Amino acid sequence: MTVTRLDIDLDRSSPVPLYFQVAERITEAIQAGKLPPGSRLDNEIQLAEQLGLSRPTIRQAIQFLVDKGLVVRKRGVGTQVVHGQVKRAVELTSLYDDLRRAGQEPETRVLSLDTVPAEEEVAAALGVEPGTEVLRLERIRFAMGEPLALLHNWLPVGLAPLTAESLMERGLYEMLRQTGIRMRVAHQRIGARAASPAEARLLEERRGCPLLTMVRTTYDDQGRAVEHGSHVYRASHYSLEVTLVER
Question: Phi then psi for 151, rounded to 5 degrees?
Answer without folding.
Answer: -115, 130
